[in-house]
Design goal:
The structure holds two protein chains of two kinds. Chain A is of the alpha+beta class. Chain A has one domain (about 1-160). Chain A has helices at about 1-5, 95-105, 125-140, and strands at about 10-25, 30-35, 45-50, 50-70, 75, 85, 110-115, 145-150. The radius of gyration of chain A is 18 Å and the shape is globular. In chain B, helix 2 (about 30-40) packs parallel to helix 3 (about 55-60). The longest helix of chain B has 10 residues, at about 95-105. The two termini of chain B are about 15 Å apart. Classes of the chains: A alpha+beta, B alpha/beta. Chains A and B meet through strand 1, strand 4 and strand 6 of A and helix 2 and helix 3 of B.
Chain lengths: ~180, ~110
Amino acid sequence: MQEEKCIDHQWEMVNVKYGFIITEKCFHCDKIATYFSDKERPPMEEYREGDHFWNVVESAQTVQFDLKCSNCGHIEECSDLMGLMMCTGCDEKCEVDVLMKKLEPERTWVYVAFGFLPGEEQRQLSKEKIAILENYFNRRRKSSRSRIKLVSNEMVTSYATCYAEVIRDLDLLSLTPPGNE
Amino acid sequence: MKLKEIIEKVDLKILTNEEERDVDGVFISDMLSDVMTSAKPGNLWLTVQTHTNIVSAANLVDLSAVVITQGKEVPKSTIELANRYHVIILSTSMQTFELAAKLIGIGLQA
C-alpha cells in the first residue's frame, strides 16, 4: 500500500477551518474549559451542564487544520490542537524556559502545542502528533537560519506565571474570516 | 530582493536590530490565523497589529520581516521580544495600500 511505503511524509496544510476558541469558566467550581466553534457567531450565553454553570470568558478567532502528505495522501487530523504559543522566557523555573535558553544559541525557538482544556477530559496531543507538527513547520521554513521546536503543554510548569500567549486573533470579531461568509 | 534595498527604496524605519534578509513576496493581513495558514516563508508581512504575538506568528512561518503601517506605535515589549527572536520590525506612516503599491513599483510581487 502506498501509505506504508511513505517513510518521509511531505506535509501540507489542508481542511483549514476558521472559527473561534471559546474559553468558558464554571462559576460554581472555577473549572476552565476550551473548545473550537466554527459557528458564524460564537456562543456567548451562559448555560448549565450538570453541576457546572458555564460562562464565556473569552472568544478568540483562530484556525483549525489537518496535515496531508503530498506523497502518500495520508491525512493527520489536528483537531486536538488548540493553538501554539511561543515561549517568551518569563519564568526561569519553567521547563520550557530552560529548554528555550538551551536552544536559543542555535536559533531554535520553542513553541508549546496546546490541547483543549480541561486536559484530563479532552484528548491531548500525543508525542507523535507534536513531532508531525514540528516537522511540518520546519519543512515550511525556507531559510536555515532558525528552526522550531514544539513541546507539549505538559512541560509548562505554571500557567499562573506564564505570560506568553497562544497565537490567536483577539478583539477582531468585526472581521469575517475568509471562507465563512 | 534584499530587505536592505527595500528599506531604502520605500523609506521604511527600522525599529529592531537589522540583519541581512532575502525578501520573497509580500503578505498582507491583520489576522494572525491568516499568517499561520497562508503566509509563505520569506514574505514581508504588512500589518497594523503591534501586539507581541506578531513576533510569535512571524517566527513560526519564517517571515523575512514585519512592516507596521499607518504609523501605528509599536510597544517596547514587542520590539524587545522581536530583538530576542531575531524578528525584524519596520514601520511606516504610509497606509497599507500605499505601501503595497510602492512595493509593486520596485518589483516585489505576491
